[in-house]
Design a protein that fits this description.
The protein has six helices and 18 strands. By secondary structure, the protein is of the alpha/beta class.
Length: 358
């Protein structure tokens, strides 16, 4: 374990950052490929904080909004097939969502109840309860995860290695806004290197080899890091739980060099911000590190390392919006979200994207 390993505590509840009405028709129910688009043809709203300007574009136009020397910090975590069919001792069916692997071979997991094409949160479960999983596997619930109404700390007993087992028996986690199942490849970014995320770090989904090649040709640098995302279905106001991260020395060096020379550090996704800010000093200097982070970035704890951000469109009152407000300010965020709603941008993991330039 790196000496900079961090296990930060989280506040019990979060304030509601930004509230608005999200029409159901703006919830992306399928990958853009199913709508006849390539990954990089999703829409991109570019908002510039210095002058308040908003530009509507496609993601494949990203290179024209970045400059030579900009550093794109990307999350190379791959998405697990983290949803498993489970049964209680009385035969009642459940769906077990793996969230985060903890030390000592423990996991945080979420129990869901099948409900037609989707699942609903399941509030039951008992300490010590055993759940049957496919192929004779099992999960044992130990205790509620501290501060959470929905997550358990559990151990898994699987008949073969985790990734192999999940590839054969699991499925990507999906919620009610995605009524049909889609192949696991739809939930991977093109630059994923190591599976471990419960849900896709979706801000990077629109990158294609062609876009990456054009960015490199323009002089944009890439700083890979890792943050394995947990499940994204918290109770209203509940902060995100601890997640595993790793910031390599070379990526820390690239970020620090960019900051020293006045070049921009563009975080691709809230997961990247969480990892970078975990290892950032007050002056913005980033050091290598790995561990489990519970850091929550809010306007009261502003960003130190990232100057700009590519992100999806987040649900009303989510903790991600507090992070965006910390970067862009409330007024700018409200204007960008009003424009996205007015222009029919699509939300969630298969939706459109937002580039915030500060």
């Amino acid at each position: 374990m790196n000496p900079h390993t961090t296990r930060s505590s989280t506040p019990a509840m979060l304030p509601h950052p930004l509230d608005f009405e999200l029409p159901r028709k703006l919830e992306a129910a399928e990958p853009p490929e199913a709508r006849g688009l390539s990954r990089d043809e999703v829409r991109l709203l570019v908002s510039r904080r210095p002058d308040g300007r908003i530009v509507h574009a496609r993601f494949r136009e990203l290179p024209r909004f970045l400059r030579s020397g900009d550093v794109l910090a990307i999350n190379t975590s791959g998405t697990m097939n983290a949803a498993l069919a489970a049964k209680r001792a009385d035969g009642a069916p459940l769906v077990l969502h793996l969230s985060t692997r903890l030390p000592a071979n423990l996991w945080t997991v979420e129990l869901r109840r099948p409900d037609g094409v989707a699942t609903e949160p399941f509030r039951g479960g008992e300490p010590g309860e055993h759940l049957d999983l496919p192929e004779g596997g099992g999960a044992t619930l130990h205790a509620r995860y501290p501060g959470s109404l929905r997550l358990w700390v559990a151990t898994l007993d699987l008949p073969r290695p985790l990734e192999e087992y999940l590839d054969e028996n699991g499925a990507p986690i999906r919620y009610r806004h995605v009524p049909e199942s889609w192949p696991p490849g739809c939930y991977q970014t093109v630059y994923a290197t190591e599976k471990g995320s419960a849900e896709m770090p979706s801000a990077g989904r629109a990158f294609t080899p062609e876009v990456i090649t054009r960015l490199v040709a323009r002089g944009v640098q890439f700083a890979p890091l890792l943050l394995h995302t947990g499940v994204s279905s918290p109770e209203d106001g509940e902060p995100p739980c601890e997640e595993y991260y790793r910031v390599p020395p070379e990526s820390a060096r690239l970020v620090n060099a960019a900051r020293r020379s006045g070049r921009r550090v563009v975080a691709v996704g809230t997961t990247v911000v969480r990892a970078l800010e975990t290892v950032a000093e007050e002056d913005g200097t980033v050091h290598p590190g790995e561990g489990w982070t519970g850091l929550v970035v809010t306007p009261e704890r502003p960003l130190r390392a990232a100057d700009a951000m590519i992100t999806g469109w987040h649900e009303p009152r989510s903790s991600h919006l507090a992070m965006l407000e910390a970067l862009a300010g409330r007024e700018h965020l409200e204007a960008a979200y009003a424009a996205a709603l007015a222009e029919g941008y699509l939300w969630h993991e298969f939706g459109d994207l937002h580039l915030i330039l500060t």
